[in-house]
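Contributing new records

If you add data, match the layout below exactly. Sequence lines come first and carry their own label; structure lines follow with theirs. Keep one chain per record. Anything else will be rejected by the validation script.
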Amino acid sequence: MARKPKPAKKGPGAMTLALAGSGVIAVVAWLAYSVPWLCMYVVAGFMPTLAAALVDPTRQKHDAIAVGTMSMGAMLPFLLEGLAQMGRTGGRDILSNAFAWVAVYAAALFAWGLCWLFPIVMNAIYERRAENRLRQLQRRQVSLEAEWGERVKELAEGPGAPAP
């Protein structure tokens, strides 16, 4: 009797996820205590990401990933500057920096725009390809009819063939 193969692991185990989650919680708690102003900036900066996660109907949440990545990219220079200042007052000026807020929310808006525009553009490209392929097949059909005569068309439309 043959043994059944073991199913492949689909992702990290529960222990790995628990350790990673504990590490993330520890880092966030340390940052919240050390530089609370930066944490307030990060929480407010990721609000569009939360909105994208709530609105995105897909299971993979690609919109939320795009918005979160763009937001994090815009926040990173300001976070590094605030961490360089450290201390209890370090990063306090980030909350009053209008450019920091504009950068984060403009990046989120740009990501939302990409998520909205990309499917439209790709749909237009695929439609154009399908139309070109259809024209190629029609030209090929005409050339086959010219080469082999009407008999080819009759055979193609024989019993069981779909009507044109």
